[in-house]
Amino acid sequence: MSLRTALNRLLGRPAAPSHPSAPSSGSKDATVAHLQEFVRTRVGVEAYVEPPNAQTPTTVLLVATTGEWTRRRVPDERTGFEVARSLGVPVYNVRFTGYPQRMRDWNTAQRAKHHRH
User: Where is this region: Disordered (predicted)?
Assistant: First the structure.
């Protein structure tokens, strides 16, 4: 799947927009831009698709080699996998893999860092 197709799906646009000049949703564009920037500026990024639960919708979690991470909502799991693949990063279902240890270590280090200040 192409990046354009996956991003159109994420943004809820038809594959061939009938109104190419129509403004796009700023928040969805911002989400896409954020994910692309995270991948572009970090090393070894992997994606984890998180299924919806009672408190949160479906999300894509990106985790860098350092453990730094970011999370964004997506419409559904299929779209989450498509978006991650379009970003060119490995993608996993967190239901089966769990969260990477490096992410937990990074969170612990960040809490300690903020607690000292």
Answer: 10-32
